[in-house]
Amino acid sequence: MPVAARLDDVLKRDPRSLNVQRSADKRSVGTCRDYALMLCSFLRCKGVSARVRCGFAAYFSDGWEDHWVCEYWDSGAGAWRLCDPQIDHMLRQRSQISFDPANVPREFFMSAGQAWLECRQAKADPALFGHGNVTGLWFVKINVLRDHYVLNGRKTSSWDRWRDAPPPKRVIIHGELELLDALATTPAQSLVESAPDW
């Protein structure tokens, strides 16, 4: 859902100012990407360089869960920082998150490209990366492509329908490895169109 439509939904449920905390029944329902995109939009409106990133978080479960965050430029430090705007008081308690959500340590969030390269170099187990019972190198591939697309201004893509892929199609073709290695290493390179293989 576009940010403008999301804001309309929030205000339709509760017309008070956006800086007023809402009860759960008055909130708009969204995914991690919705939270990241909303924050990214707010930061850009304030003149802060920001972008949405696709990867995997280690603070929700034992493995690396499919997740989206916002990455913003900290001009004082001269570095990109990760922010997870989905982390609220309830999620912080449930998942025992002790770090500042506005500065997520890099050891707790791995970009899709980092995850791909770690798996390819046998530094990480691909079975630990994914969503629910769909895990493995194929899922890491999906996030490599989604991160590449979003860094090229594609907020959504046909790769977002990964759940539609039947299990026999959830494989990596040997001929894809070189391209995926390149996209993982330099995800912001010029857009490479890639149609889903299902």
UniProtKB/TrEMBL annotation:
Residue span(s) of domain Transglutaminase-like: 15-85
What Pfam families does the record point to?
Transglut_core
Q: Which InterPro entries match?
A: Papain-like_cys_pep_sf, Transglutaminase-like
Name this protein carries in UniProt: Transglutaminase domain-containing protein
UniProt source species: Rhizobium brockwellii
